[in-house]
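Cont'd.
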Amino acid sequence: MKPDIKICGLKTPEAVDRAVARGATHIGFIFFPKSPRNIDPALAGELADHVRGKVKIVAVTVDADDEELDDIVSLLRPDILQLHGNESPERILHIKALYGLPVMKVFSVRIASDLDRVDAFIGVADRFLFDAKAPAGSELPGGNGVSFDWGLMASLDGKLDYMLSGGLNKDNVAVALASTSATGVDISSGVESAPGTKDLGMMDAFFDAVAQAERRSA
Ligand SMILES: O=C(O)c1ccccc1N[C@@H]1O[C@H](COP(=O)(O)O)[C@@H](O)[C@H]1O
């Protein structure tokens, strides 16, 4: 099956346009001030307006409170909320009731026990995203360009609809797709020439690599 492709951390019209032209199914905007990919919600809304309806717009937040979410939802008008913090099932149900938007819950993974809490979110989150746990010293919960052991996903395969992220790039995405049941891949730093700066050539190479992986698995 054709995997979903999410390009995350977009900040410019050129990068948004290229992602959509190359067939991204999702584009993500980061609302986390410490990130080099952080974007003002009003600017994100303007960028999204160019491509609205052609691609799913994802708002990436980290333990955001209602006030922050109100701002992001009204200015960006996302299709999906990606919750990349320690949001509980109760908090997710509250957010879904407030905005009526689907939620993609992120789990940060390094060891098998990092997946222990997933069951509590089944039937609560609409989709899951498994990312690598941040390395020691990083201030970012995601966007660190590090991978985790994809073999850990075997315990969940067949049970969940999930995307995979963490250190993906043109050279490893085929293996990531072949060795898991991920229905989508999500990339940020692997298509950047510097933190927060998307490189259109690297984006092209990533889309080419996913297309090649699809052909091989057909
Ligand atoms: O990218 C960020 O700066 C970021 C900040 C806060 C929360 C999530 C963030 N990014 C997410 O990280 C993965 C991709 O990371 P990688 O660079 O490809 O390893 C993706 O889920 C982004 O949404």
